[in-house]
Structures are given as C-alpha cells and as structure tokens.
Task: structure prediction
Amino acid sequence: MKRIFTKDDFKTLKSITSSHQSNINLKELNSMNAILATAQILEQEKASEKFIKLNAKFEVLDEASNNTLKLMLTLPHQTNIKENKISVFSPLGFALIGQIEGNLLECKLPNGIKKLKVLNAAI
Result:
C-alpha cells in the first residue's frame, strides 16, 4: 500500500536516511527508504488532513483493547513518551507514517502484533 507524504516530510525523511545519522541503525534507515520508495508525494498546500504526518497529533484505535491512542510522530530527537510523542523511526512510527484515516493495519511491535485503525489523522 502506498503511503502519502507531504513534500516537506518526504524531504526531511529522505535527508535523514541519506545522511546515515549515527543515532539511527541501518535496519531503520533501510525500512524508511523502502517506505519512501513507493510513497505518494503531495505539495503542502494540496495535502489534505486525512493522513498521518510528522509533528501532527492523531488518534488510532487498538482493536484488541478498544483503547484510543492519541499520539504524535516526531523525529527521533523529539521523542517524549510522557507527551505521547513517538519516533517516526520506531516500529509503531514506521507502521503509522503516511497512513490514511480509516485504514486498518497490523504492526509488528516488540511486545507482539497490534491491530490498529486510524481514527483521526489530525486532531
């Protein structure tokens, strides 16, 4: 499935993966490059609020627990779990970036597979 990115988010993430930043391991860089390779890129002014972007708050439903999670995807140095800010380079971040409202997805996390539904891509 193609993911949607704003042109700015695409450039930021492409720059990080190209520079091989030392705080991001090779597996994470390769995973992001694979996502970016098939991404649909939109100009900022043409981008609707219907997909998950960097630095935007969103809601997902954990189908197993029926809990709604309010999160924000950030760059690694901005991650703050207490503020529900997760890295776009984390397993959950990889699964969510560019996902469209209404999408159902399975993401492989360290504690098992989670089934999530994107409820609101911009809150």
Remarks:
- The CA atoms of residues 85 and 122 lie 14 Å apart.
- The mean pLDDT is 89.
